[in-house]
Amino acid sequence: MRKLLLTISFAFAAAPVAADVISVAPRDVDGLVAAIEQANRSPGEDIIELAPGSLYALRTASDADGTQALPTIRSRIRILGNKAEIRRYCDQPLLLLSIAPAGSLRLEHLTLAEGARGAIVNRGEVELYHVRVMDNTTVGAESIISNYGTLRARDSEISYNQIAGAQRDAGIVLNYGRLDLAGSLLSANTVSRRYGSLVSASAVLNYGEAVLRNVRVTGNAVDDGLDGEGAAQPLVNLGNGALHSSGLTLSDNFPSGTD
Fold first, then answer.
1. Measured between alpha carbons, how far apart are the two ends of the chain, in Å?
2. 92 is a domain residue
3. Which of 12, 201, 226, 237 has a beta carbon 3.0–4.6 Å from 196's, enabling a disulfide?
4. Rounded to 5 degrees, what angle do the CA atoms 132, 135, 137 make?
5. Burial code of 98-115, b = ≥16 C-beta within 10 A, e = fewer?
6. pLDDT tens digits, one per residue of 17-37
7. DSSP state of 119
8. 41 backbone dihedrals φ, ψ, rounded to 5°
9. Is 8 inside any structural domain?
10. DSSP secondary structure code for residue 218 in this structure
11. In b/e form, how buried is each residue of 145-169, taking b as 16+ CB within 10 angstroms?
């Protein structure tokens, strides 16, 4: 009997705890902000489900500094996009998403668009699954997606983004951590530099560990008319960075090739 009770107790202890699901109404940006804040306060993983095909138009900052459109991710959160869009709709330059070192974010079937301080700054863990990062810009900065932690993307697209007048080495995706892209597309991104001596990557600038598998890199450009010693390629590996690829397709980039 004692053995049976111990077995039953263990079975209950090992049972998985269901994640909370927070549904956000169509176009309800305040509801989305509140959902992230609620998820940040709760233990375990939380799921935020957006309305199918809805547009969440970000018009104001959610942080005290006035630089971020949405609250920083500080816990384990999964956002089910259902083909919705999160898009900046204001003149204020805003970063769309920031992930703290303790944060973990999985985005699914979602578009992130028109951030004006870039789209993502990750210091924790991020996974993109069928995500489009589109039409984002930044002026004088170094990236559209900055990764200092772990970032994985599957069947996703990073396209039509622009870095204007970079004052430091710059890349559309700037990786200092671990980057894993698979079955994804980087297309029609543009970088311009303020100085010809700067290093620019119109797709990926890598200082960390990057793996690209079955990735297409097409139609990207470093387009500023500057000549100098700095490298200007779609893919650039610097410092102690290690960039590995298989099934990589490079086409119609300017300049072409890798460095």
1. 69
2. yes
3. 226
4. 125
5. bbbeebbbbbbbbbbbbb
6. 567 899 999 999 999 999 999
7. S
8. -85, -15
9. no
10. E
11. bbbbbbbbbbebbbbbbbbbebeeb
Kindly list the strands in the beta sheet with 162-166, ordered across the sheet, starting from the edge strand earlier in the chain. 137-139, 162-166, 190-193, 221-222
102 in Cβ contact with 75 (< 8 Å) = yes
Residue 13: inside a domain, yes or no? Answer: no
Q: Measured between alpha carbons, how far is 32 from 56 in angstroms, rounded to an integer? A: 8
**C-alpha to C-alpha distance for 219 and 142, rounded to whole angstroms:** 20
CATH number of the domain at 153, please.
2.160.20
The token pair at 12 is 């209950």
Structural domain span for residue 159? 20-251
| 257 occurs within a structural domain | no
- Model-level pTM greater than 0.85? yes
- What pLDDT score was predicted for residue 17? 55
